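Review form for a predicted model. The reviewer records the input and the model, then writes brief findings.
Reviewer: anonymous (R2)
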Amino acid sequence: HISLEESGGGSVQSGGSLRLSCYSSAKRFGGESMAWFRRSPGKEREGVAGINSKYLTKYGDFAKGRFTISRDNDRNRLYLEMNNLTPEDTAAYYCASARLILDSGLLEEEWYSDWGQGTQVTVSS
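Model under review:
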C-alpha cells in the first residue's frame, strides 16, 4: 500500500494558475507511473496528466498546452502546474500511483492501484 497526499488546491479566477503537489510514501517512487485525475459533480473521473518512470508524459486533450506534469524523485513528489484555468477545470484533483511502466495507458484508471484523498480546485468566472 502506498499513501498519497495532495496539496495546493484552492480558489482562483478564470485565467489564473495553480500548482498542485502530491507526496508519495512509495519506497521506490522513481519506479512508479504517476498521474493526476479529476472529478467534478455530474461527471465521471477523467485523466488530466500522467508521467512514467522515464519521464514520458501524456495529457488529456483539455490539458494540452495549459497543464504541465512533473516529478521530483528525490522528494517523492508529483506536481501539476495548471495555467489559464477556466471554470470547467473546477474539480477535485486526485493523485494516483501504479507499479507499472505505462505509456499509452498513463491516463487509464484501471492501471492505478493507489489514490490520494484529493485536493479541490475552484475556478470562478
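Findings: Residues 32 and 69 are 14 Å apart (CA to CA).
Further findings: The chain is about 0% helix and 45% strand.
Recommendation: see findings above.
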